Design the sequence.
């Protein structure tokens, strides 16, 4: 009787095809995982760069404002000769919201009464550190020789503070950009006090 030969075992040719298929399958899985990791890394880096550009690198215009003021040496005129002389003590702030310091040059603050300049003062060059507010105090001698009678009788004298501050923002010691900011503040002198300070 003829004996039947058993099929190839794991050591034979019949098992080689299965082993190669499993190896190829594992390699495909590894390549897929590698591509997924690369894509996730690229997405993560893109998100970090975008966040950095929107927060740290983005340069904003500093704010130049009058935050407080007081009147001294007040000397009002008469109805026959309406006038006013006084000293205005002004607290000015330079608010820098950037992730880098703001260095600014000298600036002239002009006080106006109904469009006419009645006094001025100089804000000296300095710097506002990153994400901080620099406060400066200046004194302005006011001389209103053409005070309107209606304002004098009402006891309410409107004035404005105007100035332009020019400087440069330095971000992360690499990026530098010139930035100018305007001051446009209004207020009222009433009862020898400053009221209703509004800046736009």
Sequence:
């Amino acid at each position: 009787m003829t004996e039947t030969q058993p099929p190839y075992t794991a050591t034979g040719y019949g098992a080689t095809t299965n082993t190669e298929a499993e190896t190829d399958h594992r390699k495909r899985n590894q390549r897929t995982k590698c591509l997924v990791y690369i894509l996730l890394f690229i997405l993560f880096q893109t998100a970090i760069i975008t966040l950095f550009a929107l927060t740290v690198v983005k340069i904003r215009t500093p704010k130049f404002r009058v935050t407080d003021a007081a009147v001294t040496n007040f000397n009002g005129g008469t109805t026959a000769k309406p006038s006013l002389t006084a000293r205005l003590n002004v607290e000015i702030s330079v608010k820098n919201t950037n992730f880098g310091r703001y260095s600014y040059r000298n600036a002239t603050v002009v006080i106006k009464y109904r469009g006419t300049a009645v006094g001025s003062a100089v804000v000296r060059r300095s710097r506002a550190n990153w994400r901080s507010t620099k406060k400066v105090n200046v004194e302005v001698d006011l001389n209103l020789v053409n005070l309107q009678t209606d304002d004098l009788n009402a006891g309410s004298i409107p004035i404005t503070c105007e100035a332009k501050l020019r400087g440069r923002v330095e971000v992360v010691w690499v990026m530098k950009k010139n930035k100018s900011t305007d001051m446009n503040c209004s207020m009222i002198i009433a009862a020898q006090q400053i009221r209703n300070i509004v800046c736009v």
Residues 114 and 147 are 9 Å apart (CA to CA). The two ends are 111 Å apart (CA to CA).
